[in-house]
Recover the amino acids of this structure.
């Protein structure tokens, strides 16, 4: 598999969790698995993790080129199929791989380019992504949600299959004890596309209706952006009500999720929204924007609520209404546990194996 990051990369997100969970299972089942990804400071050029060989070369903007060069030199002799994982841009493997390619994508970036890519890439990135994807129209593609499948079909891809992500954390058998006061949790990378600023603005409106409310922000980002968020909290006069936890251990993250009453997820767009299921597994419903990915992971009116995109006021209204309706909130928590329990990595990895084995046979 070719992917821009691996699980040890400091910027790794849900896609890298999914990549590792799949590959380590394939390795345990006897398959020879190699992951090629970009290097990062302090990372060895090659290592083996959970049975998966990880090869690292290049950086965020050169990893595709370095993958091509490394594949032609030696990676091309080690596999029966190549998985080309696309984050904004693919690795172009159909044009040089000696074996069949299977595409893998969590989301079509689209408008994310404008918020995450540097100028001038932010201007022509969306058009380049569309042009690139259309070169893969006949390549079998795996994605994780109906939203992304629909985006890919719109771009002309003909062979798209949905295989949902699994869930790495245990699912609680009953809803954990929650905090005494309304506690809202944001968890994820602190980047503009994740809508952290909207979370702060929504919380400011929640506090007007529920003065004792608190917001926990879990995750890290670029230091400059973290300072921007902290300054925004001070500007809103909420610095005593907002806790910036930074990057925490997996155990602490799950503990905070279990104690919170609701997860807030105001992302611009998601491939799926793995953090939603992680919170659900701790008996915590989610409230997010009705955007791609979150429309799939949040079951509106059952495990959480969806609000119109880019409307912090609507998020606040949904949070306050759920807080004031205890019976509904508790029903959401129970439904969230049941929903999370249906996602298993073993099932996802087996479904993937079927696709990969078919591709290898037909290749």
């Amino acid at each position: 598999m070719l992917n821009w990051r691996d699980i040890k990369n400091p910027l790794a997100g849900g896609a890298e969790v999914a990549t590792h969970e799949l590959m380590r299972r394939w390795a345990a089942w006897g398959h020879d698995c190699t992951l090629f990804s970009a290097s990062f400071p302090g990372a060895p050029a090659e290592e083996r993790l959970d049975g998966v060989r990880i090869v690292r070369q290049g950086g965020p903007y050169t990893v595709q080129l370095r993958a091509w060069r490394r594949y032609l030199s030696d990676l091309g002799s080690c596999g029966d199929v190549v998985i080309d994982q696309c984050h904004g841009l693919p690795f172009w493997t159909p044009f040089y791989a000696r074996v069949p390619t299977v595409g893998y994508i969590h989301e079509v970036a689209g408008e994310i380019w404008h918020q995450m890519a540097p100028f001038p890439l932010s201007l022509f990135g969306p058009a380049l992504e569309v042009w690139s994807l259309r070169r893969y129209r006949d390549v079998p593609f795996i994605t994780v949600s109906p939203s992304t499948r629909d985006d890919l079909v719109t771009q002309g891809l003909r062979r798209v299959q949905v295989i949902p992500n699994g869930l790495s954390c245990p699912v609680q058998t009953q809803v954990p004890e929650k905090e005494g006061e309304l506690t809202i949790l944001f968890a994820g990378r602190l980047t503009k596309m994740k809508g952290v600023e909207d979370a702060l603005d929504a919380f400011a409106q929640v506090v007007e209706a529920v003065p004792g409310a608190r917001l926990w922000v879990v995750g890290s980002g670029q230091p400059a952006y973290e300072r921007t968020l902290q300054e925004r909290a001070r500007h809103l006069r909420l610095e005593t009500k907002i806790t910036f936890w930074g990057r925490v251990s997996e155990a602490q993250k799950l503990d905070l999720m279990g104690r919170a009453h609701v997860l807030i997820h105001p992302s611009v767009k998601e491939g799926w929204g793995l953090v939603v299921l992680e919170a659900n597994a701790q008996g915590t419903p989610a409230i997010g924007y009705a955007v791609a990915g979150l429309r799939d992971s949040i079951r509106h009116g059952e495990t959480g609520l969806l609000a119109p995109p880019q409307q912090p006021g609507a998020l606040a209204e949904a949070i306050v209404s759920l807080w004031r309706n205890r019976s509904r909130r508790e029903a959401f928590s129970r439904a969230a546990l049941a929903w999370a329990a249906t996602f298993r990595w073993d099932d996802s990895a087996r479904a993937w194996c079927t696709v990969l084995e078919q591709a290898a046979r037909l290749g």
Remarks:
- The chain has two domains: 14-166+344-362, 183-340.
- The chain is about 40% helix and 15% strand.
